[in-house]
Amino acid sequence: MAHLANAQAQGSLSRERYSLDAQWRFALGHPFDTNKDFANGTSYFSYLAKAGYGDGAASAQFDDRAWRQLNLPHDWAVELPFDSTAQHSHGYKAIGRNFPNSSVGWYRKTFVIPAADLGRKISLEFDGVFRNSRVWVNGHYLGTEPSGYRSFRYDITDYLNYGDPNVVAVRADATLPEGWFYEGAGIYRHVWLSKTNPLHVTPDGTWVTTQVANSSATVYARATIINEGLTPKTFTVVQTVLDARGQAVATQRQANVVLSPFQQRDVALALPVTNATLWDLDLPYLYTLRTTLLVGNQEVDSYNTPFGIRTIRFDARAGFFLNDKPVKLKGTNNHQDHAGVGTALPDELQYVRIKALKAMGSNAYRCSHHPPTPELLTACDQLGMLVIDENRLMGTNYQMQQELKSMILRDRNHPSIISWSIGNEEWGIENSTTGARIATTMQAYAHSLDSTRATTAGISGGFGSGISDVLQVMGYNYLGNGDIAAHYRRFPTQPGMGTEEGSTFATRGIYVTDPHKHYQAAYDRKPRPSFYSIEEGWTFYATRPNLAGIFIWTGFDYRGEATPYQWPSVTSYFGMMDLCGFPKDNVYYLKAWWSPEPTLHLLPHWNWPGQEGQPLAVWAYTNCDEVELLLNNQSLGRQRVKPNSHLEWKVQYAPGTLEARGYRQGQKILTEKVTTTGPPAAIQLTPHKTTLTAEGQDIAVITVAVTDKNKLAVPTAHEDITFSVTGPATIIGVGNGDPTSREKEKFLEDIRFVGITQLQEKALTSMSEGVATLTQASKAPWQAAFVNRNYQQLAAAYSHRGTFELPASFAGIEVTFFYSSIGQKQTIYLNGQEIARDVPASAEGNVFQLSAAILKPGQNTLDIIATPLPKQHDWDVVNTNPGTIQLRTPAAPWKRKTFNGLAQAIIQSTTEAGEVIVTATSPGLKKAVLKLRSQKPSPALAP
Q1: Which end of the chain, N or C, is surrounded by fewer C-beta atoms within 10 Å?
Q2: What CA dihedral angle connects 410, 416, 419 and 425, to 10 degrees?
C-alpha cells in the first residue's frame, strides 16, 4: 500500500506530483465472459447506473491478493507467446480478437491520502494506457479513454477516503488495435498523482513562445488559471524565467487578478531576456518558466515549464531553418517498442535510443504514428533532437479534435518539436476532396492552439490531389510513390520534406539473402524495383535545397510488419538498427554523410569457412576522400569517394585480415580492420553505464558479446546464454535482434487462479456439529450457499463445502489459499484435514500455504465451518466468496541465444543501494561477471 504523506516533491508544497508506478496488482480478464472478467458489470445496478457501484474487480472491496504484483510501466503483450494465427502486423503475439483470454488486463492499486489533504484538488494522471481503458476509484467510475496514445487525467478529489485506504482499478482492453504495428497492451506509460490548491494553473496550462532579436529574446508566457474553490479569489501571478543553473534572469507579475468559483482565465506576460542562450542541436539549452500564484503573500501554486529559446521555419526554396541557419533534416521514423520490454520503455532507455540515433548523425525524429510518451520529448529536448509530433487518426469530429488538442497542449512547450503531423498515409481520403477538407480544418484547428509551428502529414498515395494540395508542409512518403518535382512545380510556395524514405530490408550481420531462413543481406539495396535504397533516397534529398530533409523508415526495427516475410518472422527488417539498438551496416553509411566525424566502415565480416577463393562483395562506407583496401597486407587498390556514395570491391576470400585505410588530402586518417576470428571461447558483458540510481526505475543496458580466445567478437556466434543477478537489481528483459526469434523476452513467475466452485451450505446448531459432519453422514440436506439464507433467523453456525480442481501434476507449483472471511469465526478443512482453527473475521483476509501432502490431483474438497456474518439492514452486503486458490510456478532462469554474436539484457534498479553482480554463462564458454553500483539519488534541488 502506497502512503503519500511524506514523499518529496519539487517546488512549493502547494503543488505536489508523485509517481504511482510502484506496487500494482495485475491479472488478465476477458472481453465478454464475465466469469473470466472478475464479474465486472454483473450487479443489479451497473457502474453506469449508480455512482459508486463499480463491481467485481472495480470494487474497492474486491480481493486482489492473489493477483501478480508489478511496477509500471508494464506491457503484458510482450510477455505473451507467439502464435502463427495472430496478427502479422503486431508481431504474431497472442493478443486480439482470436485470443480473448489474453486481450483484457486489470490493474489495481491501493494508496493512502493523508487527512491533511482534504481541501486540495487531487488528480490521477495517466501518460498512456493501451487501450480502451476504464478507470474507477473506490468503486466510482471515472471514465473511458479509447485511445492507447492519449494522455488523460481524472479529478478524484471528491471520491477519496482521506486518511484511509483508496483503491484505483483500471481495465484495459487491447482486443481491437489502433495501428498496423506492434502496440503493446496495458498501462505502458507512467501514472501520477497530483495535488494542488483549488486555485492553480490548469493541467498543461502554460504556453511559452519566444521572439529573438540579436543576442536578446522576449519570452511570452501565458498561463491559464482556474479557481476550483467555492469562494472568489484575488491573487497575483508571478512569471519568472530561470536559466539552466536555476538563477532568475527575468520576472514579471500581474496583481489583483480576480476569479469567481470555477472560473478560469489566461494571464499573459512578456519577459525580456538579455544575452539569451539559444536552444540548438549541439547546445540544447533549456530555461524554465516558473509560474507562481500568490494570495496575499502566501504562495498557493508553483508550476514549472521547461522551454527553449529558438526560432524555426520552413522555406519552400531553402528548406528548414533553426535559429535562422539552414539545417538539413536527417531524420528517422520510429515506433515505441524495444527488445525485452515491448512498449513499456524505462525513461533511461529513451535516452539510450536517442543518443544512438545522434551518434549516427541523425538530428530529427518522427513519432510514427501517434503522440509519444512525454519522456521521449524530454530526452529530445535535453539531447538536441528535432521532432515531428504526430496525431494518431485524421478526423474533425469532437473526439478526434480533442485528441489533436490534447497532444498539442501537452507538448507545445517542447523546443524539440518543429512540426505537428496531422496524420499518415490515410489512403481512404488522401486523394479526395474529403481528405482536403479534413486536412484544412485540422490544420486551422492546430494553428488556433499553436501558431508557431507548421503542420504536415505523411502522404504515400500519390502527390497529385487531395491532402497533398493543402498541407502547410508537404510530407512525401517514398520517392517511388509520385513525382516530387512535378508536385513542387504545381505548388512552388509549399515547403516539403521526405517524411518516409527507404523501407529497405536488412538482417544485422547477414550478408547472403536466404529466403528459407528469412534472412536479408545487409547490403543497401532497393527494397523493390519502384523504391529506392538508403543511399539513393539520401542523395535525392541532399542535393535538393528546397526539400527540408529526409526521415528514414526506420531508425530501429520494431515488432510486426515483418516485410518481405510473414511467419515465422516476427519483427521488421526496416531499421538502421535492430530491435536491441545494435547497428546494421547502413548506420555507418548514414554516419559517413550525416555526421562530420571521420568514418570508415567495412562490410561484411570475415568469417567465411568453406568460401576460400570465392569472390565476396566488400563495401566501404566512409567520408574520407580515398580508401585503400588490403587483404593480409596485400593492396587491392585505392578508390576515390564520391559524395553520398560508397565503395565496392570484389575480393577472393582468404582467412586473415581485411584492412581499409582512409585518406584525406593525401594523409591517412583512419584504419578499419575486419579479422577472421577463432571459435567462441568467452562471454563479454558491456553496460551502457556502470552506476545505477536506486529509485526503482533506472536501468543498465548490457551488451552481451561472444569472443574468441583473443577477445575478438565472433560475428557468427549463436550461443545459449543464461543470466543471473544478485544485489539490488533485477533483469526486466532480454533480446538479440533476430527478426525470426520467438524466444521468450521475459522470464516471469506464472500465476494462475483456481476458483472455488459448487459452494454449498448446511445450517448447524453449533460449530462442533459441523466438525462431526466431516466424517459422519448428516440428515440435513446441502443447498446452494448464501442463496436462500434468512438473515433475520440465522443459524448458530453453517458448514460450507466447495471444490477446486488441480492439474494432474503440480510438482514445483506453490499452492496458496487466499481466504476471505465468510464468518465471524471459522475453522477450515482441506480434504478432511484441518488447516486453520477458530480464525476470527479479518477485513484483510488470511493466507494459507497449502501443503502438497494434503492436496491431490483433480478435485479437492474445502470445508469451512463458521458462525455467520450478520446483516444490520436488508441492503447490507456481506462477503459470500471464500477466496481464491493461487497456483504459482516460479520463474525459470533468464536466458537468450546470441544472434550473430550479440544479445542484450536490461537490468533495472530497485530502491535499495548496493553492489549489483550480473553473471552470464554458456556451456563451453568462459563465464562473464559484471559488477555495477546502485546508489541512492542525491536530494533533488528545485531550480
Answers
A1: N
A2: -90
Residues identified as active-site = 425, 500
Residues 623, 344: Cα–Cα separation, whole Å = 37
Strand 165-173, strand 191-196: pairing: unpaired
Contact 722, 742 (CB under 8 A): no
Are residues 184 and 243 in contact, defined by beta-carbon separation less than 8 angstroms?
no
* Pick from 855, 532, 867, 898: nearest CA to 684: 898
Please count the other Cβ atoms lying within 10 Å of the Cβ belonging to residue 407. Answer: 25
CB 178 within 8 A of CB 148: yes
DSSP output for 824-882: EEEEEEETTEEEEEEEEP-SS-EEEEEPTTT--SEEEEEEEEEEEPP-SSTT-------
Q: What's the pLDDT tens digit per position in 816-874?
A: 999 999 999 999 999 999 999 999 999 999 999 999 999 999 999 999 999 999 999 88
- CA 658 – CA 601 distance, rounded (Å): 11
Strands (E), 214-345: 216-227, 233-242, 248-259, 264-273, 287-295, 298-307, 312-315, 319-322, 325-326, 329-334
Burial-class residue 651 by CB neighbours within 10 Å (0-12, 13-18, 19+).
middle
pTM: 0.96
Q: What is the spatial distance between Cα 841 and Cα 606, in angstroms, rounded to a whole number?
A: 72
| Helix residue ranges, H only, 177-269 | none
Picking from 92, 902, 74, 78, the residue whose alpha carbon sits closest to that of residue 572 is: 92
Burial of 692: CB neighbours in 10 Å, binned 0-12, 13-18, 19+? buried
> What is the rounded radius of gyration, in angstroms, for the C-alpha atoms of the chain?
31
Distance CA 870, CA 893 (A): 49
Phi, psi of 363 (to 5 degrees): -125, 5
Residue 195 grid cell:
495535488
DSSP structural state of residue 52: T
> What single-letter DSSP state applies at residue 936?
P
Q: Which residues pair with 658 in a beta bridge?
A: 631, 674
- Do 891 and 79 touch, CB atoms closer than 8 A? no
Phi-psi category of residue 480: left, alpha or beta, with phi > 0 → left and psi -120 to 50 → alpha: alpha
Tell me whether strands 454-459 and 473-477 are parallel, antiparallel or unpaired: parallel
